[in-house]
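Re: the pair you flagged

First of the two:
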Amino acid sequence: TMVARAGEVVAQLQAQDKSVRLSALKQVKNEIIGNKFKKQAFLSAGALPMVLSMLRTVSEPDVLVQSIVTLGSFGYGTGAEAAVLVQSEGVTALVSALSSGNEQVVEACVRAL
């Protein structure tokens, strides 16, 4: 099923290997853009809390940027989709990331917000 497949990708977000985590983030982002059914499947599989956790705990700029872009993709669309990001404190995490000293991270935050 779509949720089971999403769950496999979400599990990769917890990998020790940074390249696996980064690849999984990109896959989540690419899968959910413009597809409300896949977006819901990834939400059901627990992707949003995992991506938020990465944003809050990771220091590598490339992973931060990809997690920010992925969060923006979760929030883009209808008011209900944006509400999911607000309710999960995603907006708060994005605003906090604005204070990053990395220009790419700040630019990604501005676009996501």
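Second of the two:
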Amino acid sequence: MTDALCAADGTITLVYTNSLNGNIDYCHCAANPNGGLVKRATEIKSIRKSRPGVVLVETGDFLPADNDPGLAAAILEGYRHIG
């Protein structure tokens, strides 16, 4: 790990996410509704404010299953802004 990624004490905070499934807003699921990319970005921003040295790892299923290129591009742009 490079010094640029580590907190002053040499630690990192690993944040991992998965299964966004192309949802920018909440998923509209009847059972167990989850937040979308907007909520995820807000949570990650909050973690970064309180903990230096955050490394974000997206583990998959973040693009829409229906192969919508416009939505996929929006999701990728959102992740680019999240960092």
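Strands lie at 13-17, 54-58.

-B.
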